[in-house]
From TrEMBL:
Belongs to the short-chain dehydrogenases/reductases (SDR) family. Keywords: Lipid metabolism, NAD, Oxidoreductase. This is Uncharacterized protein. One of its GO terms (molecular function) is oxidoreductase activity. InterPro entries: NAD(P)-bd_dom_sf, Sc_DH/Rdtase_CS, SDR_fam. It comes from the Eukaryota. It comes from Sphenostylis stenocarpa. Pfam families: adh_short_C2. One of its GO terms (biological process) is lipid metabolic process. Gene3D superfamilies: NAD(P)-binding Rossmann-like Domain (3.40.50.720). The keyword Oxidoreductase applies.
Length: 300
């Protein structure tokens, strides 16, 4: 019953969000959005958080380059988002792909205002450090950390001469507290927060802001893939419920649009004095622990 209630609330709020997005798109074409005439490059934008952010940015007046390793999905997403979205194939483990994507933005639009290093992968690895698979560790670091550093490097290359820019990265609640995910993924996300702080320290001198967003678990293909490996015997809806039930904030669930809203704020001039920041979007999950003491009258 509780689960059904949660599910219903989720679908009502999702259709509400879709309506709000359509309304906002209409409004922004008439009034100009928060990112009017800005150019954004988003890695991993064919799906999930990246796609929701690309949608949000376009609805706020931006032109978006969708850079993703998944060509078919990326092209479909770009078609769906219309003429202000362009797809480019990009594997973030290949520095030349990132460099090409940045150069493509410059050749098409003459500028790059926002670089969102969002692409990342999960990994199912043994829970104990003793059994750590170092090859898998390297692969995850290659995408989740090296890919982010390369993205910032090439964005900075074109932003420094202009003396402005906003760089975003997707970290995670698993990079805020230990124990939420297995070591490899968690370490990669702690590293993203470190990358952001280290590079914000240099790039502030050039008027470039660098921030990251740490989402709570969201049932995107990324998280659902993990769930189906851990719980292969139950269906997709049950996986969604397990993810949503892990949250602490009553009555709402973490959705891609919540991260897109955070990204819109950080990318826009509303955050013109925010840099080196890790914006945690987790309903309070990493801020507290509750002591589940029994009620006084239950203790004899
Ligand atoms: N969903 C969650 O629960 C959650 C929570 C915290 C952080 N994150 C982070 O959010 C980011 C986006 O994940 P999502 O949940 O939207 O997942 P998703 O699976 O919906 O999207 C990830 C996208 O990244 C692309 N991608 C994967 N490897 C790539 C590579 N080497 N080069 C370029 N693109 C690549 C995929 O094709 C896909 O389109 C990731 O960095 C992830 O670690 C997700």
């Amino acid at each position: 019953m509780l689960r059904r209630g949660l599910r219903n609330r989720g679908s009502i709020s999702y259709s509400g969000a879709l309506f709000a997005e359509s309304f906002h798109r209409l409004l922004s074409t008439q009034t100009g959005g928060k990112l009017q005439d800005k150019v954004a490059l988003i890695t991993g934008a064919a799906s999930g958080i990246g796609k929701a952010t690309a949608t949000k940015f376009i609805n706020n007046g931006a032109k978006v380059i969708i850079a993703d390793i998944h060509q078919q999905l990326g092209e479909e997403t770009a078609r769906e988002l219309g003429s202000n979205a362009t797809f480019i194939t990009c594997d973030v483990t290949e520095e030349s792909h990132i460099s090409n994507a940045v150069d493509f933005a410059i050749s098409k639009y003459k500028q790059l205002d926002i670089m969102y290093n969002n692409a990342g992968i999960a990994c199912k690895s043994p829970l104990s450090i003793v059994d750590l698979d170092m090859a898998l560790f390297d692969k995850v670091m290659d995408i989740n950390v090296r890919g982010v550093v390369a993205g910032i490097k090439h964005a900075a290359r074109v932003m420094i001469p202009r003396g402005s820019g906003s760089i975003l990265c997707t970290a995670s609640v698993t990079g805020v507290m230990g124990g939420i995910a297995q070591h490899t993924y968690s370490i990669s996300k702690f590293a993203v927060v470190g990358v952001v702080k280290s590079l914000a320290a240099e790039l502030c001198r050039h008027g470039i802001r660098v921030n990251c967003i740490s989402p709570f678990a969201i049932p995107t293909p990324f998280a659902l893939g993990e769930m189906s490996q851990i719980f292969p015997h139950v269906d997709r809806q049950r996986h969604v419920d397990i993810i949503h039930n892990a949250g602490v904030l009553k009555g709402v669930n973490c959705e891609p649009n919540d991260i897109a809203n955070a990204a819109l704020f950080l990318a826009s001039d509303n955050a013109k004095y925010v840099s080196g920041h890790n914006m945690v979007v987790d309903g309070g999950f990493t801020s507290f622990k509750n002591l589940h003491f029994p009620a006084p009258d239950q203790v004899q």
